[in-house]
Amino acid sequence: MSELDIPGAGERVLLAGLGNPGPAYAGNRHNVGFLVADELADRVGGKFKAHKAGADVVEGRLAGTPVVLAKPRSFMNLSGGPIAGLARFFKLPASAIVVVHDELDIDFGAVRLKFGGGESGHNGLRSLSKSLGTRDYYRVRFGVGRPPGRMSAADYVLKDFSRIERRDLAYHVDRCADAVDELVSKGLASAQNRFH
């Protein structure tokens, strides 16, 4: 499937935030995709409801485009199944999927967008690529920075944002949601020019 420069033609888009379900994980760096999905749900004026594909979903319009917002109810490492299930249910190609996730290789709060590419060791992306049978979907990467000292990446992403990070977290989540909005309404090049 080739890249769509996300449809301004009113085509439906699946916007999936990655994270782990349950209150114990809610403030973790790994759950920033869920935070952005919650912000987008506020913007479309919807509440998440359980879907048989194994995710909580909201349907609405973002920047005039019909969207399905999704938060998988499985753990991060298995999040591909529910997202692929939603894509099948709504009859959407992988190129109409936008995934919002945490990214270790980017400074805290920075946003980067791309289409396709590798998974950079991110188990949620690895699960999704395997479930879809392709890497050709959009990624909106929210920077969480590298772990300090000798802390493992796995431990770092399962820790809550620091007190200092939390001061600016709402601003960065809002900005990341703006980047998703720009991607959906004006395409990848426009979003990269504005947010990179």
Automatic annotation (TrEMBL):
It comes from Haloechinothrix salitolerans. It is an enzyme of class 3 (hydrolase). One of its GO terms (molecular function) is peptidyl-tRNA hydrolase activity. This is Peptidyl-tRNA hydrolase. It catalyses: an N-acyl-L-alpha-aminoacyl-tRNA + H2O = an N-acyl-L-amino acid + a tRNA + H(+). Its main location: cytoplasm. TRNA binds at residues 25, 75, 77, 123. The record marks 20 as: Discriminates between blocked and unblocked aminoacyl-tRNA. Catalyzes the release of premature peptidyl moieties from peptidyl-tRNA molecules trapped in stalled 50S ribosomal subunits, and thus maintains levels of free tRNAs and 50S ribosomes. Hydrolyzes ribosome-free peptidyl-tRNAs (with 1 or more amino acids incorporated), which drop off the ribosome during protein synthesis, or as a result of ribosome stalling. The record marks 102 as: Stabilizes the basic form of H active site to accept a proton. SUPFAM superfamilies: Peptidyl-tRNA hydrolase-like (SSF53178). InterPro entries: Pept_tRNA_hydro, Pept_tRNA_hydro_CS, Pept_tRNA_hydro_sf. It is found in: Cytoplasm. Belongs to the PTH family. Pfam families: Pept_tRNA_hydro. Monomer.
